[in-house]
Amino acid sequence: MAIQPNKPQNRVFLIVGIVLAAAAAAAVLFAVSGTVSKNNVPTANVVVAKSSIAAGTSITPDLLTLAPLAQGTFPQDSFTDPAQAAGKIAPVTLSANIPLTASLFASATAGTPGTGVVTHLDITKGYVALAIPAGVSGNSTLVGELMSVGYYIQPEDHIDILVDPGNKPGVRYSFQDVRVLRAGASTGAAAAGASAAVNSYVVELPRNQAEILTALITSHAPGGETILKYVLRPQAEWGKRDATNGFDKPNYESSTGTPLALGADTPVTPELLNSLFQH
């Protein structure tokens, strides 16, 4: 006699299989929708350099392109139309894919009280903007041009600050990887319509470092004055911009290097000159 199949039991297996298949499909759908939602970050088209643009180059539209960047990863004053940057002069070497901003091309000039600011400063979160003298502080006999890299410091450069305490021996790198926001202009030169000599820089520093630098600039310690000298950093040693907070991770370099060694040299003395030229 043939054995009859157990139809109720097969029906149970079928129902369980359908339930498991539905659960698997729901899990896949949830995973896919989660991935889409994570990747669905709002973007905006921002003007960037197609390739590296050398400092002093007159910018033309063919040097620029639009790049879709996630909101919050670029400065608020970034250009959104290549025409906004066309005709401007690159104040510094612009790396490929760097967003071009209004503040990058805005030169601070002697202002009139009550005059509105054209663009807001793009200040890193947790930092403050601080105006510092163009290389001369506390010693009017020093020429500012010699103390500030011949006025080659431009907005968006990064500098180190050497501090000579004056009344105590010793010069050291007291501040490193300081971002320059603006290069100011001489009031007299700007008023006369002449080429303005820089007399100040606007830099950004963490709040505690801004206090220290202010104390150094305004220090009137007996026996000497504090002297500041600025040096330009190569771009390879700049701290990296964080997409959320900006340049909040400065790159500190050791000041040690190749020891100064004097090679063989014969001093030039009056006696030597007499022997050579028979004076």
Describe the structure.
It is a single chain. This protein has helices at about 5-40, 100-105, 145, 185-190, 205-215, 270-275; strands at about 45-50, 65-70, 125-135, 160-165, 170-185, 200-205, 225-230. It has about 280 residues and is α+β, with helices and mostly antiparallel strands. Among the domains are: about 40-105, Antifreeze-like/N-acetylneuraminic acid synthase C-terminal domain (Type Iii Antifreeze Protein Isoform Hplc 12); about 120-250, no CATH class. Strands 3-6-5-4-7 form a five-stranded antiparallel β-sheet, covered by helices on one side. The protein has a two-stranded antiparallel ribbon with strand order 1-2. A hairpin with a 7-residue loop joins strand 4 and strand 5. The protein is elongated, with a radius of gyration of 31 Å. The model is unreliable at about 110-120 and about 185-195 (pLDDT under 50). InterPro entries: Pilus_assmbl_Flp-typ_CpaB, SAF. This is Flp pilus assembly protein CpaB. Keywords: Membrane, Transmembrane, Transmembrane helix. It comes from Candidatus Aeolococcus gillhamiae.
Order of helices and strands: HEEHEHEEHEHEH
Strand content: 15-25%
Q: Output the radius of gyration.
A: 31 Å
Q: Tell me about the biggest sheet? A: 5 strands, antiparallel
Could you tell me the number of beta strands? 7
Bulk shape:
elongated
Strand order of the largest sheet: 3-6-5-4-7
Structural class determined from secondary elements: alpha+beta
- Compute the separation of the termini in Å: 141 Å
- Mean pLDDT figure: 75
Q: Please, how many helices?
A: 6
Low-pLDDT stretches are 108-118, 186-195
As a percent range, the share of helical residues equals 10-25%
